[in-house]
Design goal:
Layout: H1 2-19, H2 24-27, H3 33-44, H4 50-66, H5 72-107, H6 119-168, H7 178-212, H8 215-247, H9 252-283, H10 289-316, H11 330-335, H12 339-360, H13 364-394, H14 406-428, H15 431-465, H16 471-480, H17 484-510, H18 518-529, E1 532-534, E2 537-539, H19 541-569, H20 577-603, H21 607-624, H22 626-641, E3 649-652, E4 655-662, E5 666-670, E6 676-680, H23 681-686, E7 690-691, E8 699-708, H24 713-726, E9 737-744, E10 747-756, H25 762-779, H26 787-790
Antiparallel strand pairs: 1-2, 3-4, 3-7, 4-5, 5-6, 8-10, 9-10
Helix pairs in contact: 1-9, 1-10, 4-5, 4-6, 5-6, 7-10, 7-13, 8-9, 9-10, 9-15, 10-12, 10-15, 12-13, 13-14, 13-15, 14-15, 15-17, 19-20, 24-25
Length: 805
Amino acid sequence: MMAAMSFIPRLMAFWLAALLSCGAAVAQPDAGTGANSAAAAAALAPEPTVADLREQLSKITASADSDTGADVRKLVAQINDIGTQADKFVAARTGELADLNARLGELGNPPAAGATEDPDITRQRARLTKERNALDADIRLARLLAIDVRQRGAELLTQRRALFEAQITERAPSPLGGEFWNDLQEAWPSDLERLSALASGLQDGLSQALQQGPRMAVLWALVLAVLLAILGNWVAEHLLTRIAARLLPAGRLRRSLLVIAIVASHVLLVAVAAHGFVWVLEQYATWQPQARKAMRSMAQALVFMAFVIGLGRALLATARPSWRLPPIPDAMATRLAALPWLVALVAALAWTPAEINQLVNASFAAVVATHVLTALVLTALVGAVLYRLKPLRADAPEAGLPERPMWVGLLVACIGVLIVAIWVLVAVGYVALASFLASQLTWSGIVAAAFYVLFKFADDVFMAGVSSRSTFGQRLQKSFGLAPQTLDQVATVLSGLSRVALFFYMLIALAAPLGTGPGEVFQRSGKFGTGVKVGEFQLVPGAIFSAIAVALVGFIVLRVFKRWLARSYLPSTQFEPGMQSSITTLLGYVGGILVVAFSLSALGIGIERIAWVASALSVGIGFGLQAIVQNFISGLILLAEQPVKVGDWVVLGTTEGDVRRINVRATEIQLGDRSTVIVPNSEFITKTVRNMTLANAEGRVLIRLPMPLTTDAQRVRDLILEACRAHEGVLETPAPSLTLEGIEGGLLIFQAIAYVPSPRLAGGVRSDLLFTILERMRAERIELVPYAAVAPPVAASDGTAPTAA
């Protein structure tokens, strides 16, 4: 449980880094006068050389090899500190080496044999070369030392884990037998003497602080610490609730953020109060090392209790039911109100004997008894929690809650079986394993509750900040023209990625009591961050996130650039609207390819790997993807050569309509009935296409009018041309014309031609002209040809020879 206690500051630092970036106070519980003086001394001390660091590593290695009972965690911390100093040495000297190389470059190469140069330059080059070589050798030695440090640290951690596994499976006397109690009775006098020495040290230090320092100062420090821990948390909780209600919009994010803020305030205030009071005591007394460690351990235990209590109170929210994050009824929350206090108190009490044993170097019998006590107390705590929840699960249907999922029932059953197994292990003598399982069970519950809040917070952040329903999401829609579905999908993906990252750190947190401390746990996460090799490809989590960030930023920039082209730049040019659309689409394709290439480069996939993948895909393209590639290339040709562009009126076989969009694979053509036909791009390249608006955007109106032979041809000519000139849709240039084509079947054939701005207007203008011409002919009493005189033969329905209509 000690590792779990020490992991709380790091866990809170992770919380506050995600929200408030202020968890360092908890992560450093040993801050005090000693730390300050050590920091000042370190600042004034000369920087160690590589030889000094190598000597320190040799001493630590010799100490670890000679003393099998040494504190491996402390040795690993010292070794890591040496590695940090070596890295700092390399970083500091690299700049100096670059300066020396630059100065040597300015002096140039040594002269050739037989040539002469200024002696001062020769001496200066020799001096700089000597300094450069010495500095380069130091840097190489420092890098080699850093490698040795990592290797030796890994060996010590492996040794520690092996020792832990050996100890945890070791069998001790059973508490049900007489040997256990006899050993405890024999070791009791010596253990009691060690406890008395620790108690005397604490008592002497406290008496000295009260006698040498101002008594009222110590008492006031105690009072302020208690007020800050109790009253300060109460005030902070109410103040945070009011601030959240006023500043944050209503929704899930406000609730999850309030939970994190309440837990952070509990931990910070209790940490400041506990360590502040310890600092005051250390100022007015000279404490023995064991007594000082005991005080700091008690302060650390109070921080752990504050974390558990704050987390439980924030989740239950008995005073603010509408702010409650988990779906718990009010009656259930009220019944569980005392549970966080119980868990924190029992966990601290179970941890205290183990910490005391470590401080006083207790006997083996005392360690075994501590394991027994820890296992029984923690399993009793878990059993009490399950018993407390049992009637609530039975009343869930009446409270309107959904039926309990099957996996919850299986989990509860497994916990019950594990409790029974722990008791059996205690009875047969495997007390270390039983204590470990009980500690792990309790710690898992605390970690699960903490990361439940973080999972909810991560989901709420992206859903409330990026989704189409959020204010920021609506601004993104207006600024970048994004579809609501796209924003919702992005929010879901980001939420999923954040949950995966949190799940990884949850596994790290669950591993804290496994015989390792936070330093090793975070070192493992750092090793994982260096990458996992799959075949010849190195999967690096940091590179994956970098690639995602590059792709996200790249596509956003590309979209902004396309909007600027389409709305600002291209409209100010001489390009036609169809050409502007084609340019924007083509640049979008090119930009998309570049963004994908940059993202793959950020992922660690070079151009040669992309070429290899492309060559591998060429086989599949040759067999099954020919049509897709053909249409893609055809689309690029359409965008580049512009035989057909957006806005053109085209005729392709039986399809006639306006080109609305040219995509990568196909082109969209809108027909006269407003329906859309999707035509593969290759059809425009391999088949005959009639483009009504390619070279000339003007449309032609053709009217052929048969008239009797007795018609006044000149009068008809004037009447039709006058009607054409009077229509506002007819162009003046070229001017309308009328010709008498000849006599067919005893009829005069007049043909009128007029031009309109667009072919799309030809049909409407032709209809208007016909109405006008017929109306004027009736007004002028010009005789028209009967329908039977010009109607074509109509085939009989029975298949006989055609007859006149």
